[in-house]
Amino acid sequence: MTRYQWLVLAAAWLGWGFDVFDALLFNFVAPNTVPTLLGLDRGSDVARDATVLWTGILSSILLVGWAAGGVLFGWYADRYGRRRALFVTVALYAVGTALCAASMNMGQLVLFRALASLGIGGEWAVGAALVAESVPESRRVFAGTLLYTASPIGLLLAGAVNYQVAGVWFADDPANSWRYVFLCGLAPVALAFAVRAFIHEPQAWTQARRTTAPPSPRELFAPDVRHATLVGFLVSVAGLLTWWACNAFVPLLGAWLAAEHAPALVERWKTMAANAFNLGGLVGALAAVPLAHWLGRRAMFTTYFLYSAIAIVVTFGLDLAPELRIRLLFCVGLGVYGIFSTYVFYLPELFPARLRASGAGFCYNIGRIFAALGPLAVGIVTARADGSSSALLATMLWVAVIPLAAALFSPWLVIETRGQALK
């Protein structure tokens, strides 16, 4: 890979890392944000129920906006260019997240989160297409996998920032500490301007633009592309639904386990839970490189889904000590989170250059509308139970059904693309 190709990969890596960082900040500050904006006493039963309910609602709203942004900016990137789309999406999610700090009620928080979600959803499709078209064919799996390692690192950064800001610097001011955490979401603005200055359009896109008519989203359902669109959507929605149903509540699970067994360690256990899940995701993401080469795409997806189902059953279904359960979140992240590095190289492989960002963005992000049902269902069921860690665990156990079903159908559904050049 040339120096410029590494620069493209670095820009996309940072864009995706900050994308996830901004997207998941709310999950860490929810126990302080929701009671403050609703005027509830933190730690009360009413506040706990409201927190888990609004975590589900806002995660679902984020996913719907994420889907809309993915489709919109995927089309925008295919029509007007990868560089311009990457600049707009990064700037949009950074500003939207920072505005959350100024929220005075839940309505304003919903509005600002929805604004940020448009940029968050759009950045993935643009970055994936840009990297796939800029690196050599022989390095596509490696580059796509490396790109997705930014996601768990972005989540680790979100947990570290929340702990430092809300747990150390402003630990005695929980009513306002979450505002400072959201302000940290403004950091990616500098990256957006760097993209404008140093990145140019990939040759595959410029050539496709010169020789073909502007793309239309309807073409994703043309006879020669329809099957690829369906396959990309199904494997994406299975992974997304599983991930969001788990990840949206990982910090909350850590906090509740600490409140019930070690009240003085709430912020520490919350961070430990998130870090275990995210570190597992980082290792699982890197595993995609040997799995994709040794097993091919079809067997790779089957392996990830089957392992995810087993890890969920063990972690949430067995009678375990609280600290051991938190450590086992590493194993959950290994499959549930690790699988997402495969989408970065697999979805672009399914579509021609003129539809690459639109197709990858549609499959990956429309799946989020269905994935929105995951955290919403977990939040509603847990809130209607007793708002305890045991109720949350019992609900999350059922999430294993999703990857198990995906593992059973993957051998017949997934299109094998190993060894094929980009169209």
Describe, in plain words, how this protein is organized in 3D:
By secondary structure, this protein is mostly helical. It has a single domain (3-413), classed as Up-down Bundle (Growth Hormone, Chain: A), CATH 1.20.1250. The protein has 19 helices and no strands. It has helices at residues 3-38, 45-80, 82-99, 106-134, 140-148, 150-169, 174-183, 189-198, 203-211, 226-247, 250-261, 266-286, 288-317, 322-336, 340-349, 356-371, 373-384, 389-397, 401-413. The longest helix is centred in the first third of the chain and has 36 residues, at 3-38. The radius of gyration is 20 Å and the shape is globular. The two termini are 20 Å apart. The mean pLDDT is 83.
Features:
single chain, 423 residues, mainly alpha, 19 helices, 80% helix, globular
Main pleated-sheet profile: none
Number of domains: 1
State the low-pLDDT regions, or none.
Answer: none
Average pLDDT, rounded to a whole number, is 83
Cα distance spanning the termini: 20 Å
What is the CATH architecture annotation? Up-down Bundle
State the total count of DSSP E strands. Answer: 0
Shape type: globular
CATH first level = Mainly Alpha
The quaternary structure here is single chain
Helix share bin: over 70%
Tell me the Rg in angstroms: 20 Å
Put simply, the count of helices is: 19
SSE sequence, one letter per element: HHHHHHHHHHHHHHHHHHH
The structure class reads mainly alpha
CATH topology: Growth Hormone, Chain: A
Strand content: under 5%
CATH superfamily assignment?
A: MFS general substrate transporter like domains
